[in-house]
Specification:
The chain is built from 16 helices and 12 strands. The chain is α/β, with parallel strands linked by helices. The chain has one domain: Alpha-Beta Barrel (TIM Barrel). The chain is globular, with a radius of gyration of 21 Å. Bound molecules: flavin mononucleotide. Flavin mononucleotide binds next to helix 2 and helix 16.
């Protein structure tokens, strides 16, 4: 299948010039030790204060959903085809009329700039340099206008309360900034119960406690490389992009209140956004096929099947399990998957189950934490190289040649 649906198939692989064979990009010495996405995640665990690493890597309550994202991949094995001429293979995928160089992107991750210096900018610039999509979060700490300038192809992700008086001006601001793709996250009706954060001392708003001070003092690379550097160069971080105007600072007690009535967000609000936003509109966090049917009737342009990286409702299944059923009812609209992708083989399994595109979260932010933009670019290269190699090994030349016939349930 293709990202645009069945009508718009990409050029057959056989017509691709053999000259499009990839050669591995040169790796600077300070990045050479990172050989897989897991290497970045391990390094970020050392670099960050425990409370921030817990926020980045953790799930919710028992971590059932976080673990299900990995379990769901482990339940599938490949049945590769042999003797396929794979010299014309490539990793390009088209989505919403744009051809990306790799079959994956970077999803929205709030508070990135608290973990990596200028985190949102770093992620979006790396995505632009490598020609993959990046979604900026409503909970980000750098103004959306600045992100749009750095990467005119970036997408915007909203967290919205069920209040038209806040929805309309926010949508207008996003349009004015030039965003052409709007993602409404629909699985954050309330803040989830992330006990690990509370145990580690990570609270929103951040409280200037002894624990925070001590964790900063024992992680000087983060303290000086991110926190004090941010304060010195840009001042106290604010939630810049939840509304039409600037939100509260990260230390503010007003923060919970600023979230508003997110539990009141419902279908009429999606209709309202659809009427107001002229570009591509997606919903993120959908798991039930009936919701896909309803959103399709309202006129959304695509779906992000996701359990929010196992960070919201504990027990919510991995979106991978729902992918085939959702693709069936999506009527050719792109169905995008995220959650637990750590290897090229995971990307391939998601595509074989019907994904039109996938997003990879924690490892990309981890790369930004430890090596900034060059680190994220290295992480993108590594994953892209894995997919490129795996295509040959499975016997295919392009992502749209993958289908369920390449998979077997092993558990
Ligand atoms: C630190 C962090 C912050 C996140 N913030 C947001 C957010 O602001 N909005 C959102 O829709 N999803 C958010 N997510 C979820 C991601 O967009 C994505 O669904 C998830 O990370 C995918 O799983 P993965 O990290 O296993 O790849 C966040 C995830 C992480 C790890």
């Amino acid at each position: 299948m293709t990202a645009e649906g069945p009508a718009q198939s990409r050029a057959p692989a056989t017509t691709q010039a053999l000259s499009q064979k990839r050669s591995a990009p040169p790796v600077p010495p300070h990045l050479a030790k990172f050989l897989s996405l897991a290497d970045f995640e391990r390094a970020a665990a050392k670099h960050l204060p425990k409370m921030l690493h817990g926020y980045l890597a953790g799930g919710v309550e028992t971590d059932w959903s976080l673990e299900d994202n990995r379990r769901a991949f482990a339940e599938w094995g490949f049945i590769p085809r042999c003797l396929v001429d794979a010299r014309s293979r490539h990793t390009r995928v088209s989505l919403f009329g744009k051809e990306y160089s790799a079959p994956f992107g970077i999803p929205p991750m709030g508070s990135s700039a608290l973990m990596a210096y200028r985190g949102d900018l770093v992620l979006t610039q790396a995505a632009r340099a490598k020609n993959i999509p990046m979604i900026m979060s409503a909970s980000s700490l750098i103004k959306l206008e600045e992100i749009a300038k750095a990467n005119p192809d970036a997408w915007y992700q909203a967290y919205l309360p069920g209040e038209p008086s806040r929805i309309e001006p926010l949508v207008d601001r996003v349009i004015a900034a030039g965003f052409k793709t709007f993602v409404l996250t629909v699985d954050v009706q309330v803040s989830s119960n992330r006990e690990n954060n509370i145990r580690n001392g990570y609270t929103i708003p951040l409280k200037p406690t002894f624990k925070l001070f001590w964790q900063g003092a024992t992680h000087p690379q983060w303290a000086f490389g991110t926190w004090f550097r941010t304060l010195k160069n840009h001042g106290m971080p604010y939630f810049e992009n939840m509304d039409a105007g600037r939100g509260p600072p990260i230390l503010s007690r007003e923060l919970e209140r600023a979230f508003g009535a997110r539990d009141g967000l419902s279908w009429p609000h999606l209709e309202l956004i659809r009427k107001r936003f002229p570009g591509k509109l997606l919903i993120k966090g959908v798991l039930h096929p009936d919701d896909v049917v309803r959103a399709k009737e309202i006129g959304v342009d695509g779906f992000m099947v996701s359990n929010h990286g196992g960070r919201q409702l504990d027990g919510a299944v991995s979106g991978l399990r729902m992918l085939p059923e959702i693709v069936k009812v999506a009527g050719g609209l792109p169905v995008i998957y995220d959650g637990g992708i750590r290897r090229g083989t995971d990307v391939m399994k998601a595509y074989a189950l019907g994904a039109a595109f996938v997003f990879v979260g924690r490892p990309m932010l981890s790369a930004a934490v430890v090596r900034g933009q060059p680190g994220v670019e290295r992480a993108i290269d590594l994953l892209q190289e894995e997919v490129h190699r795996d295509l040959a090994l499975i016997g295919a030349n392009a992502m749209d040649q993958l289908g369920p016939e390449f998979l077997v349930k092993v558990r």
